């Protein structure tokens, strides 16, 4: 239910309802039916759709070639605390109208950072209190919190990986406050996206030392939160580049290796963003499979990139095939561990109507819902799963099984090779698999 | 010294000598002076330059749009064993004339694979014996051997990651023979480049199961070789894509994580190829730094890619700046662990003169030698090293040092942040660093 | 109807029928219904689906990392003329079973090139005669012919742009024969894809001179064919890179500019390949729109690339959204001028079942058919077209119309600006447009 | 000579002098010796180095992930006219200290745009007067002016290609004022970089209509300026993407074709930016060669991109090999037509020392100077030019010459092919060419 503050920000737009795929109402869900059960859970439970505070309530459409185009009512107050409360009102109104259950934030999305650390802390406490009330009134929950340790100029050379210990300490202080806020708001998880943790030039960088600092920093953050009683997951959100030429958390495999290196693999999981996956030359589904294989499939940042524009475009998800293939892996992996599907996406700079952000979230939710329905049907009704399983059946018994169990030596394989003689080729049937997917879309 | 067989293949070309940078002789080294000492070692020791048997003696300039253009005398014999011996003669003549000390091979570079496994084994034994003699006569050594488990159609769905246990076994048998040949030739190392270990489509692939198979397979190969008394290093050579859409050994970070996952990190190190690094959106120097940080900087495959052509072009190294930056990291890391610099590079399809392959190797060796000289001068004579070290000096004492030692908590950082107040910005001086590099080139 | 030769090559596979989207028969069309009328024409007429002789009957799955995996019955004859006839038999059997009307070829797809020019000419005449009979018997037509002036080593430095006049002349002779064969077979069009027309290194290249040669060469080819009575279109097929680092016919805009430069724009149109479009960082639909704007939308090479593997993967089309957007532009442009939709696509190297090539073509045809149906519905039933037209309505009357007619000066605009004052922002509604497309898929 | 205003902004930094390559002074030129004659002209004349007002005096290091880090004294005044004058003072001080002769600007680089068109016009007139005086006092000249028709939200859907005639008119008014300012300041050229002329989504775009509008708009701008007596060149600066998904002026070939389409080729030339070239998958040298071939090599925007970060990083030039190859083409083309070498480059976000921008320009100027010296030496002293010329010598006489003169038919080529028989392969010698370049660096 949409909770309004003292004014309604999205006038003329009511709660978005599911109307089915034959509806021509642009302000209705065509596939996302929250209570519909698919593969044993409601869509609501599968996805835990979340709004990204930064894009939806803070972003204004600016880009490197011009300032923002989207001017919001909730930014009008000159007092930063009032402005923050207005923004929270708008946020809870929007989330309620969308019918979603979750939001995610960076500390200084909630309220503008002040000119001193002490004052910033005060502001955060104030707005946290206010949002606590909004949460209670609305039932909306916090999927995860995080700290923005990359926008402020002080972090221009990194935060946890800054060559200057004082800057690292400042980041530490800020993360403490963000953890406090997340815990105060019953956040289910806490995310680290390595904003400027990486390098612009390797020439001036001691990468080994910086990585050790980052590991140490995360250990300290984890220990602090656990000591305060935080039971949620920590997530790392990989990204290969931008803003830094090279970001340390390049992709899931890199982040998983890093977490294990520093003994963090029990507490941390991966938050996979579609556009970050594709910037790393992986697919979304590849990253999901990689995290799932490691038992670390934590959460998803739903969006899409433009394969031809080499930066993080953070467009709303609308790629039906990509999302269907992702949902196949998602369902096989048993879903997410603690996280949800957060729309880390922004409307285009020239989308300046108030309704545009609703349309965008509707399109995104429908893309995921449709993909889930399709993937479920492929798994339950088509030859797909069986075809795939049979490809590996030689490992389900006999010597193949022994191999998997570690019972064979290289010389055993040599003997098998000698006995077998030349082998028949077995088609990979890729075109058949692809046709099956498209048949069900 | 160049050892000839019964005929001279590279007539008219003698041993390549160092003549210095003022020489206009295209068939002389201008920077590579094998016995010149740089940073405590001769260039010969630093680099251990190696010829890649496959490109230099097997490749004929074919590409997906046409067959080979380079027709070699040593391929004329119709008997495969004679042809293999002729090729070995040509190889040792070439290596000797270049004045290099090493070569690298895949099993079926040495001799054409036969139509049966048993016959292939016999051929390998025969050619290994022959090359043993050439080695003894010339003093040329084997940097590393490997098995080509990707060209034969039987491996079209992978070798160690093939969904069919019989194909995996065949690969196991082949790797056994390649290990035997490598050991017979006193190979200093053994390489795994994951030819078709990866997937063309995730739709028909069980990635988790395939990765487990690959881990198991490497464990068995290591155990076999160690049992036979092999003391050298195993290397994994990462590559992100091609031939498969996704290769499992994507980059150094991924391979290092994989090796640790399967308990292989003591025996394996990384063999970094320049063009594979850049295809993975890393720089050569980044990959060196990553492997060095993990204590796994094993060997280098020297070549270069074309940043604008998204496949492995394997051109000869000629990028002065890229190689200089790499040599900076190389020197700081203390060089390679067991490996050397192997020219995994091929002349262009339209380079059809016999001298072209000499020119190419000369250009490559000079690029590395010049880069080493420049990097050494930058480290010993310029402000570079000092500037870089000072950036991190706040961690060399006081609380910064305590942080590195794991003695601080997040709350300690919070207190530092409170006390510090707002911080001055410290320039990263990237342009200064870059100017210094160029000043010394 | 499928015409068999003396034997049936694709045994067990009959003619592929339309069975509709609820069919689970992998060997049936689900969307492609040849006689179904969409937007005033049958699907058969819209598409003129064509088989690419090279991929489907010559390609064997080889790649830079291994030889072919697909072994064909029709390649078994040792006599090149018999092998060519067998291949033609297989081709016409396949085309007939697919129910398509067209094929395309390169000269030496039809028959293996001989060791002399004279003998090659004889072979071409022989096979042309044979195919003429197959055409007559089957009703299958020739969409276009072309000459392969890139595979033979003699063309390693280019054909029409070779620095050596003798090689250029040889290409000229070959093109004459290919034109003769195309005309003998009533080819409706003739294509130039600039195989190795470009450069590997600009260092050894006089680009200006090479471009002039290419222009002159095309002028001569056109003049010859017209003099022989050829009434069809000439097409240029752009591609940005591969095999050469830079191909001269980079994209449609470049090719159109080139054609105009050399006075060829009346006789030539553009043949757009999907994967070439995306390698050039354009979309398929962008290239269609570019050619259509110039009145040069000639023909389409249907396939798809992998956005993450930077070479021409030539996969079969299966991207529903990409093709739908392309069909929107296609329908608005009034379709193709003279050409058709040629499946310039190959099954994956590991697709080794005889049925795989049928499955692949079925998937491709269904993707285009479904996209056409969807695009037609979007145009006729949704708000799409109207929304798009209204965005430009200010140019349909008043000063906007005067501007388009060239009746205003810059000072007139200045006055309008002065009078208007500040303007309201008008949303581009991208998310709404995208949602509409997905609603109709 | 550096002209100061009422205060000195770059205190402690004097005029940058040439000290030669053995100097360790970071604030001295090591290669750029303005009065040194190379290939018949002084370096000063060859390059006409220019400062980009926007990056050097307006940019503050902001990026999509955080606001500016560089805080400038000259931005402190609250009155926009005073601030603009202070910035002009700083600019002329900087240009003078660098010893450069030129600058380039966008209209609203010079002074902040006001809230109304009329007030903006007044501001522009005021600052133009002020700069006129600075120019007179310093001797610094205006290489080119341009209008920023992309930052203001009103241009979010394009300027000349906006779907709304009112926005197009506003752009027209703005371009008139920018032309007036350029002419008032004796600008030698005027540039159009198509900021948001392109599309974010083809779905909502009528590309043909937009291109016609852009052509019409440029015709009107040219006619206006010519009528006012402007004798300089107009330039188009191509860029393939960013900010729009697709920019209409994709690359030089596209822009040249566009200019000819609308009859603009006599008045317009091309301004090539390095980073725009590489984003379009071309090299800098390719774009220079393309423009030179069309007789349209107008001007250069000197910078460099990061081949691995797919956006316009606008780093300062430091790539020695890339620039050397570019200077080879530059010298062969006879240099620039009317333009110069403008440093369209910005220091990194974390380069926050006042000296950094000097270091950056010094590094850039030295890179070009060194490249020019090297290229000249290659042309005059090495085998390079002769090797390249001889590759084409078969077209300098006999039938090759007849071919170039258009005297042969396709049948003539056919006869040559018949007579020639099979041809010898001629090596392209790419590795030799590359080695020669590196020998001279
Ligand atoms: Co994200
Ligand atoms: Co993102
Ligand atoms: Co390699
Ligand atoms: Co390679
Ligand atoms: Co094609
Ligand atoms: Co293709
Ligand atoms: Co520029
Ligand atoms: Co730029």
UniProtKB/TrEMBL annotation, chains A, B, C, D:
<dbReference type="InterPro" id="IPR036237">
    <property type="entry name" value="Xyl_isomerase-like_sf"/>
</dbReference>
<keyword id="KW-0413">Isomerase</keyword>
<keyword id="KW-0859">Xylose metabolism</keyword>
<feature type="binding site">
    <location>
        <position position="314"/>
    </location>
    <ligand>
        <name>Mg(2+) 2</name>
    </ligand>
</feature>
<keyword id="KW-0479">Metal-binding</keyword>
<feature type="binding site">
    <location>
        <position position="276"/>
    </location>
    <ligand>
        <name>Mg(2+) 2</name>
    </ligand>
</feature>
<feature type="binding site">
    <location>
        <position position="301"/>
    </location>
    <ligand>
        <name>Mg(2+) 1</name>
    </ligand>
</feature>
<dbReference type="GO" id="GO:0042732">
    <property type="term" value="P:D-xylose metabolic process"/>
</dbReference>
<dbReference type="InterPro" id="IPR013452">
    <property type="entry name" value="Xylose_isom_bac"/>
</dbReference>
<feature type="active site">
    <location>
        <position position="106"/>
    </location>
</feature>
<feature type="binding site">
    <location>
        <position position="312"/>
    </location>
    <ligand>
        <name>Mg(2+) 2</name>
    </ligand>
</feature>
<dbReference type="GO" id="GO:0005737">
    <property type="term" value="C:cytoplasm"/>
</dbReference>
<dbReference type="InterPro" id="IPR001998">
    <property type="entry name" value="Xylose_isomerase"/>
</dbReference>
<comment type="subunit">
    <text>Homotetramer.</text>
</comment>
<feature type="binding site">
    <location>
        <position position="344"/>
    </location>
    <ligand>
        <name>Mg(2+) 1</name>
    </ligand>
</feature>
<keyword id="KW-0963">Cytoplasm</keyword>
<keyword id="KW-0460">Magnesium</keyword>
<feature type="binding site">
    <location>
        <position position="237"/>
    </location>
    <ligand>
        <name>Mg(2+) 1</name>
    </ligand>
</feature>
<protein>
    <recommendedName>
        <fullName>Xylose isomerase</fullName>
        <ecNumber>5.3.1.5</ecNumber>
    </recommendedName>
</protein>
<dbReference type="GO" id="GO:0009045">
    <property type="term" value="F:xylose isomerase activity"/>
</dbReference>
<dbReference type="GO" id="GO:0000287">
    <property type="term" value="F:magnesium ion binding"/>
</dbReference>
<feature type="binding site">
    <location>
        <position position="273"/>
    </location>
    <ligand>
        <name>Mg(2+) 1</name>
    </ligand>
</feature>
<comment type="similarity">
    <text>Belongs to the xylose isomerase family.</text>
</comment>
<feature type="active site">
    <location>
        <position position="109"/>
    </location>
</feature>
<feature type="binding site">
    <location>
        <position position="273"/>
    </location>
    <ligand>
        <name>Mg(2+) 2</name>
    </ligand>
</feature>
<keyword id="KW-0119">Carbohydrate metabolism</keyword>
């Amino acid at each position: 239910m949409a909770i309004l503050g003292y004014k309604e920000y999205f006038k003329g737009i009511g709660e978005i309802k599911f109307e089915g795929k034959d509806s021509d109402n642009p302000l209705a869900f065509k596939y996302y039916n929250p209570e519909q059960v698919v593969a044993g859970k409601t869509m609501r439970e599968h996805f835990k759709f979340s709004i990204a505070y930064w894009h939806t309530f803070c972003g204004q459409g600016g880009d490197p070639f011009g300032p923002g185009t989207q001017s919001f009512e909730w930014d009008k107050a000159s007092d930063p605390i009032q402005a923050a409360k207005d923004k929270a009102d708008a946020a809870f109104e929007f989330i309620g109208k969308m019918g979603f259950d979750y939001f995610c934030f960076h500390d200084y999305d909630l309220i503008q950072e002040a000119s001193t650390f002490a004052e910033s802390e005060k502001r955060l406490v104030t707005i946290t209190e206010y949002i606590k009330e909004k949460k209670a009134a609305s039932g909306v929950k916090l999927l995860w919190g995080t700290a923005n340790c990359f926008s402020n100029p002080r972090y221009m050379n990194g935060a946890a990986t800054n060559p200057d210990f004082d800057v690292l300490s400042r980041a530490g202080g800020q993360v403490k406050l963000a953890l406090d806020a997340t815990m105060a708001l019953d956040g289910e998880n806490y995310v680290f996206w390595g904003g400027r943790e990486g390098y612009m030039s390797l020439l001036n960088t001691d990468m080994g030392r910086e990585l050790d600092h980052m590991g140490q920093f995360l250990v300290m953050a984890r220990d602090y939160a656990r000591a305060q009683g935080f039971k949620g997951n920590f997530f790392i959100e990989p990204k290969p580049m931008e803003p830094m030429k090279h970001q340390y958390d390049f992709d899931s495999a890199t982040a998983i290796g890093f977490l294990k290196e520093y003994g963090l693999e029990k507490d941390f999981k991966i938050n996979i963003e579609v556009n970050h996956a594709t910037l790393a030359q992986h697919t979304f589904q590849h990253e999901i499979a990689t995290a799932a294989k490691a038992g670390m499939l934590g959460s998803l940042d739903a969006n899409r990139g433009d394969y031809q524009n080499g930066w993080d475009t953070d467009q709303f998800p609308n790629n039906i095939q990509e999302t269907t293939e992702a949902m196949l892996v998602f369902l096989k992996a048993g879903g997410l561990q603690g996280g949800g599907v957060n729309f880390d996406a922004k409307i285009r700079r020239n989308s300046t109507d108030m309704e545009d952000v609703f349309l965008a979230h509707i399109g995104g939710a429908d893309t995921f819902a449709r993909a889930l329905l399709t993937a479920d049907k492929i798994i339950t009704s088509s030859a797909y799963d069986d075809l795939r399983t049979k490809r590996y059946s030689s490992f389900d018994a006999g010597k193949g099984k022994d191999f998997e169990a570690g019972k064979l030596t290289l010389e055993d394989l040599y003997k098998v090779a000698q006995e077998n003689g030349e082998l028949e080729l077995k088609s990979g049937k890729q075109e058949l698999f692809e046709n099956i997917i498209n048949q069900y879309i």
